[in-house]
């Protein structure tokens, strides 16, 4: 008798769960139709649509042994409903903003567009950090607006530095071109595969400029010339394997807000104590 009652209760909960999912889907479809219908009478009059009325009733949870999995399903549905609610709010707000812009004068719209901030181009920061790692050499200061090579910087005088370990001519390092006159530097196979040194000097960022036999950093000025701790002139490729897994507990995969938690392997570098993805130069 008791098992029959438990089975009946379980079936009712499953049916209720399915009804709630269907109800959320129907409501989302209706809101999408309302928001995307640009031919409605309200659109022609510039009147905003009414905020949809939705309500979520949290499920009653019975954390009994055979009901735990169902409770987790109910929790996931609650999270999905909240996501749908957020989407509906965003769509509704967008509809209201679009209606107000359509009803505005063209000159006002132009002014709004003119006031929008322009996203600044990406510039490197760590490549200008001073002093240079594992030494006391300070870079020449480069302001953000002087990083691109296209911007004139007459006072630019980069520090010349190559680490002693690189100057010892290990097999993974190029000849010291900085100690040679520009006319006597051997031409390296820049922007392509170098068969002589068995290294790929092509950059994933595209072709880079070469001046007086030396490559220019495609990201702009760094306040330093020379190789520093790097062995090659041009790109110094590295392989960084990314190892991930879903965080798990004794009960299975861990959920945070209805979503899985991703973990990855990282190492703490000894030279600067920063966390990084483990990798090796190629």
Automatic annotation (TrEMBL):
> What does UniProt give as the signal peptide span?
none
What EC number(s) does the entry state? Answer: 3.6.1.13
EC supergroup of this enzyme: hydrolase
Q: Region labeled Disordered — which residues? A: 39-61
Family annotation (SUPFAM superfamilies): Nudix (SSF55811)
Provide this UniProt record's keywords sorted from A to Z: Hydrolase, Receptor
Q: Which InterPro entries match?
A: NUDIX_hydrolase-like_dom_sf, NUDT9
Identify this protein by name.
Transient receptor putative cation channel sub M member 2
Give the encoding gene's name: TRPM2_3
């Amino acid at each position: 008798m008791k098992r029959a009652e438990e089975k009946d209760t379980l079936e009712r909960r499953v049916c209720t769960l399915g009804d709630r999912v269907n109800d959320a889907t129907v409501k989302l479809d209706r809101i999408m139709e309302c928001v995307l219908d640009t031919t409605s009478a309200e659109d022609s009059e510039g009147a905003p649509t009414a905020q949809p009325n939705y309500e979520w009733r949290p499920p009653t949870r019975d954390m009994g042994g055979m009901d735990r999995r169902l409770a987790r399903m109910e929790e996931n549905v609650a999270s999905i409903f909240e996501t749908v609610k957020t989407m509906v709010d965003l769509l509704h707000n967008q509809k209201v903003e679009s209606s107000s812009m359509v009803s505005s004068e063209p000159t006002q719209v132009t002014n709004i567009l003119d006031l929008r901030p322009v996203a600044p181009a990406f510039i490197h920061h760590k490549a200008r950090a001073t002093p240079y790692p594992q030494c006391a050499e300070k870079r020449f200061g480069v302001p953000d607006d002087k990083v691109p090579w296209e911007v004139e910087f007459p006072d630019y005088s980069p520090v010349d530095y190559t680490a002693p370990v690189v100057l010892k001519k290990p097999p993974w390092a190029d000849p010291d071109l900085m100690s040679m006159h520009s006319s006597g530097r051997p031409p390296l196979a820049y922007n392509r595969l170098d068969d002589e040194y068995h290294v790929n000097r092509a950059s994933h960022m595209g072709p880079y400029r070469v001046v007086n036999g030396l490559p220019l950093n495609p990201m702009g000025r760094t306040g330093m010339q020379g190789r520093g701790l790097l062995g090659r002139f041009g790109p110094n490729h590295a392989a960084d394997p990314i190892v991930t897994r879903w965080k798990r507990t004794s009960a299975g995969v861990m959920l945070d807000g209805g979503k899985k938690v991703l973990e990855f392997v990282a190492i703490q570098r000894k030279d600067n104590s920063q966390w990084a993805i483990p990798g090796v130069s190629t």
